[in-house]
Batch of 2 targets.
Target 1
Amino acid sequence: MANPAPPHPALALLKRETRLCEGAVPLGLDGGEIRPDSWQLDGERFLFRSATGLGYLYVRGEGIIAQRPPGWDPDEDSLIRNGSVYAAVACINGLYPIHASAVAWQGRVHAFTGPSGAGKSTLTAELTRRGLPLFCDDTLLLDLTRPEAPLCLPGHKRLKLWPDALALTGASPTGKIAQRFDKFYAEPAGGSIKDVLPLASLTFLEEGEHARIEPLHGAEKLLRLQDDHYTTDLFLAASQPDRAGRFAQLAALARGLSLSRFIRPRDTARFAVDAGVAERHVKQHPTVQPDSEPGP
């Protein structure tokens, strides 16, 4: 029997860098004080403070310090550590987050992105019900050692759905994500994948009258990859690329990726039919998707 492939080094790095201890954290990294539910990144340090008094300080090479007030909510603690703090640790250590939820099919990852509320998690939950295992929810973490062939690190966050999405997809809730949020964790009906896999496609969710998926090409791919989500802000704050470096990175990523837009009406009566469009897009996706040099 052949020996199994060694684990991707980034997984061991993230496990090491997210080791946790308790202690006091500062109000700010520059002698000032940051607002509640906000973050600050300074070189190889990251600070997050919540409105409920939870605080987290990450220093590269030293792990995470958590400050927890009396009566703290363990679910909110987990939500923050696996969200903003984890994304910051990844960015400071050279990994690239995309605001997306994703499924796996035949050894490759297919991701869906869009602004908050676009329906990424709901669509992904429905696709898992159709037999496509969950890869990640909300944040897709990429290793861009080879930007033209990005690798996806398996999701560390659980599927999270609002009550209407639970009803729409038939997903079973397993508990609230935190006391102050009316959102629930849910088990993916099709299971989940924990392997490092290549990214095959990234699809942008948009609203429109008729459900259809259209490929993106050239300069439009570059423009669509410039997300304004907080995870992108974290990456830019951590890496501080110059304009030319950022363009080169996005151009390499655009060349190596199949990008599409999924236009569909936000009509619950059509949800199952429109989800079938996404399912076919994933299952019939070609193995190789050549593309020309993106540019004006």
Target 2
Amino acid sequence: MQFTPSATPLPEDEAQDLLHKLRRKEATWIEWGRWCQTLQKGGYRASQIFEDTGIEGSYQNLMIVAAQVYDTLVQQGASEAVLDYYRGPRSDVLYEFRVLNHQERVAAAQLGMDKRIDVDAAHEVARAIKTWSRTRNRPEGFSNHPGDAVAYQCWRTARAKKDLQDRSRLIAKGLKFAESDGARTQIEQLLSDFTVVPMQRAPLLPLYRLEQEEELPRLVPVVGEGAIAATQLQATPTVQEIEPFRLVQASQDQAYVPIPGWQVMLKAQDPVAWLCSTEDLPNANNLAREAVVVVIDRAQTTWDAQSYWAIAQDDRVEIAWTPEQPEQTLLGQVTLILRPKRILDEGNLTEPWQMDD
């Protein structure tokens, strides 16, 4: 998912120059990341950059983030040896350090160079440093060195293992990363102390997956409520949705209404929502008076007799049906009219289900 909070259009000649450099793989991966970021901020989607350069969107993101981590190493005064090592290229390792603060990144980068770690080990190092920084009751002997942070994780996990092979493997890894004598001493004690100390496990993540389209609503910009001018409907900005979650960038003065992702909504190209009443609808004499949301697809302006239309009547928006092409300007096709929910006791939905004895 590519989300650009604000895009500043990039001059075409500058964009083409950057795309040309990326195609030819000029300079280092660090420049590639910076160029991809410039292009994305300039309004180019990751898919467009991929088509022009062959660099996949996921790798674009990795390089952009890793280049930012590299820049913090420069800003924090990392040694030239460290900087040269990560120009290697080792963008995947630096990417794992994105979760650390600036000082922690420098320490982790130094450890990564000293131990020649790969991306999997880099992930473990970053996680160990974060865990260590959040640990309040730190055991005696372990220092703040990132190597000791990794050693602490190995020591903590090893103590909870009953299997001697797993325990020995973690002890060996802990001794490999331990920097201080105190950390080494703590880990070496596990070679003779086989007491199993249960480790509290983290709860399961509250993961859910959307299974049906209608579970993911479509956000539709609201043009207004009650009587509205035709110019008001036409001036409402078009919404750009960012997949896979249909993310919408909202302006401060724009309201939106969620509409279930029914098939008719998926087909709408430029929908807007008008809040009105059933009294404002044609052929609605048998409907009770209530508020409704009328979704109008502004992209559909070719009349047909099987649809209702938003028309400009004396510069006011009206919903109409005509058996023939009307003289008034068609502002868009009525995609759907949404009535409010009808739930007798909404509070019951939040309470556990009960049955009387």
